[in-house]
Amino acid sequence: MAFKVVLMLGVVFLAQQSLATGFDFTTSYARKALTLVEDYLPGHYNDFNPHPTSHGERAFCQTGEESCFSYDPDSGIGPQCWFKIDYPRNKCCDERNSFQSPIDIPVNQRTRHARNRLRYRRNHIKGELENNGIYPKFEPEDDNIRLYGVPGTHRSYIMDNVHFHFGPRGDERQTEHTIGGHNFDAEAHIVHHRSDFANVSEASVHKGGIAVVAILFSTEHGSKSPAFENIFRELGEVEDFEDEENVCFLENILIFIKRIFNLEEDGRCRSALIPTFPAPPSQQKVHRKCLLHTKDSRCGEHKDEIYLNPNELLSECAVYYNYDGSLTSPTCSEAVTWLVAAEPTRISKETLKALAAVESRFTGDKISDKGNLRPLQSLAGREVKKLRFPKRKHRYH
Ligand SMILES: *[C@@H]1O[C@H](CO)[C@@H](O)[C@H](O)[C@H]1NC(C)=O
Ligand SMILES: [Zn+2]
């Protein structure tokens, strides 16, 4: 990409200046480096129309190409800046929108009884764990694992992935959703798209197109889920982040520059620095999927397969908080039917340590350095229902 070349030349230029002159770098040089990058990028990002949510219309932002964003509130691409990130989907993550997630779930409502059981028809699935630098993510091999009983529709939902959120080490907040102000120790999202859509991207522009089951984990309450344990067992295998096409390539160079020059950001959102700048569709990168991984997850030989019963991923007590919200990372599409388990599932301290050791896509960082929790969003008058789903006598059937 010409863009990367220009950036590299800028860095090399500065390094040469330094060597040639023996000049003690001042921030003016560093600023110049940043300006060089900024100037090269198209300056029209901020001109896009905001979605008309202020007029009561729902904003539906289609997910698609992955973009570079961070969970660092001090960064120009942190959560406070996400609304600027995705070209041409500006404003999708605008916190003034009224269907955003995660939320602090109010707990004073009565429990209603859902008519149908929430369950998968399949009891045995196979998949793999990967680290995309945002979170560890389990993906089933089969693309027809259907969840039945999601409220508000008679349609089933197809499982896309199971991924994990957790906070910065030592912080009190470790889950995206909180329940009555209460924090737990980690949170899993089981992401599905409605079966009448081809994929999450297509489903993301329709209300209820996506269903996410959130499972909160606690080291002190609930019982362990064998299915989650099977996933957790593989965490060590994906500790390293190895992605040849890191969308944060540019950001990593900036981090490098900032570290050399000891620069701090001024809090401005750097919408323009996101490397998903308007690439014509024909030039969009093709996602290369590694078919064979070595044990340490490099592309080459085989990678451990994970077998699990998807019904074991669901909450044992079958009580969920249900509300309409959004994806919790860009594009923040407001298409999500949320089902947040009311009671936690048990997690061991060792597993929390294994999660904390997983690398992020920012060079040299762990995901747990900043965590991967979006700030809580306003409930904005939404109703949160508490639903008790019918249970079978035995959990795992
Ligand atoms: C999603 O499905 C649509 C329709 O089949 C297709 O055009 C699109 O490429 C798919 N997107 C992804 C990300 O797979
Ligand atoms: Zn998530």
Structure description:
This protein is 18% helix and 18% strand. The protein has helices at residues 2-21, 27-40, 200-203, 226-232, 249-261, 349-356, 367-370, and strands spanning 104-105, 111-113, 119-120, 125-131, 136-140, 146-148, 157-165, 178-179, 186-194, 210-218, 306-308, 319-325, 336-341, 345-346, 385-388. Helix 1 runs antiparallel to helix 2 and helix 2 runs antiparallel to helix 5. The longest helix is centred in the N-terminal third of the chain and has 20 residues, at 2-21. The chain binds 2-acetamido-2-deoxy-beta-D-glucopyranose (NAG) and zinc ion. Residues 163, 165, 189, 328 line the site of zinc ion.
Main attributes of the structure:
signal; 18% strand; alpha+beta; Carbonic Anhydrase II; 7 helices; Alpha-carbonic anhydrase domain-containing protein; 397 residues; two-stranded parallel sheet; CA_dom; 18% helix; binds 2-acetamido-2-deoxy-beta-D-glucopyranose; single chain; zinc ion binding; 13-stranded mixed sheet; CA_dom_sf; binds zinc ion
